[in-house]
Amino acid sequence: MSPLVSIIMPAYNAAKYIQESIDSVYGQTWTDWELIIINDGSTDDTASIVKMNQLKCEKIILIEQENKKQAAARNSGLKIARGTWIAFLDADDVWAKNKLEVQLGFQNKADVLFTSGTILYESKNKKELYKTEYGFFPSADMYAKLYTYNPIPNLAVLMKREWIDKIGYQNESLDVVGCEDWEYWIRLAKNGATFFGIEDQLFIYRIQSQGTSRNLNRMRIAQAYAKYINLDFSLLNKEHVQAYFKNLMQPLINRLLESNQKKEALKQIRILNEVTEESNYNLIQFLLNTGISINSKFLIYLAKPMLALRALKRAFMQIK
Length: 320
What we know:
42% helix, 12 helices, Spore Coat Polysaccharide Biosynthesis Protein SpsA, Chain A, ten-stranded mixed beta sheet
């Protein structure tokens, strides 16, 4: 008996693209699947399009809920999924027709199977290869790799259903929005899941627009948080990881200070000091907690202690 694949598709105002995504599921050469679409509070015709598809295909399941973001939407689908394998497909992306069949040909290789594919930059009408990794990765190897970058796009994954019972659902915290899948792969690897990358290009990942600097800050915050909550120094080179966190978070903290996001900056400072086991940013914490405004003139870089001393002198002058 062939295994059932549960396909999880969150959808928010996806009327422009969702039919193309659904059609790429219809066209799969692997036919033993169920498609669970979560309408995450859409205000356009997303739900109507899904309901029309339900009339001609009983394998489509629609969940309607208020907007709760991607992780919560996926979790709603995961909670009712019946398949022994789980796949993810966002409502503006598409699969090659043999995507599931190719992956299931490797089902004895690992717990998480992922493929290569194509990135479509829609605003530029440009395509390029999605750079990923190929071959078998023990859990510890993938865990270490995921602290450098994320080689696993969400729509590329096919994972064993049993791992949901072992590690739980995706993280719904606002702190990890935009990196929910990355955090999930880190958690899988940390808890012993194995990975296998397949060279075949089996998806088209659509990027509709480029993010703003504020969105860049949010993504950096999400990256740092995803790694921070899953940090296990027994599985990593401690010095390398600490250096990585400094390189990631020092510019982020400075950008947050420049944009007067004091509360978020303090949060990131606490994380950085904890991970690096240092207290280099305590001066900035002092300045913020005394209510002193910090602009680009007072930014403190860990590599320049004299700047810290000058900033402290200026701070006391303001107090006086």
